[in-house]
Design brief:
Blueprint: E1 2-7, H1 14-29, E2 34-39, H2 58-68, E3 72-78, H3 86-94, E4 104-111, H4 118-130, E5 134-135, E6 140-143, H5 156-176
Parallel strand pairs: 1-2, 1-3, 3-4, 4-5, 4-6
Keywords: Flavoprotein, FMN, Oxidoreductase
Protein name: NADPH-dependent FMN reductase
Domain NADPH-dependent FMN reductase-like: 1-143
Amino acid sequence: MKIVLLNGTIVGNKTKVLLEETEKHIKEITDEHETSIVNLEDYELQFIDGRPADQYNDDMQKLIKEVEEADAYIIATPIFQGSIPGTLKNLFDGISPRAMRNKPVSIVANGGTLQHHLVIENQLKPILNYFRCLVTPNYVYTHTNHFSTQGELIDEDVINRLKTLANVFTKYMEMSKNLESE
């Protein structure tokens, strides 16, 4: 199965660090899956305005195809101004409503305040529920204090929660093999 670890922003490094740590733990559990980290900053993003996918630039077409063809997702997002970044929402707007159906998704996020974890519950999960994804119940939210001044993840509790997230995610992947995607 193909896992896309999606970095939902074009700035900063904390979400990259969270994805790399999560990918490491998934690979410790099983090496039978293909993983790829997709950084939105590596693409020439275009504003999604309702056109068919084939009318966007090559990068947007490639990005949409890569996401739609994955079997499972780890989505990493920073929380900006009490919301997910526009870059991530823009990508969701380009994905077919059926492309992520019955596919496992886990969420990792980082924010500047402890209360920003509510964005996952009030914004990101409803979008993923619209796609009818299999969203794991345990997301990992981090705060600036969980990282060193050099951007390294230093909080052992967060590292352990990422290990647990990876374990639950791989169980959801096993479960999803018996479900039809559309």
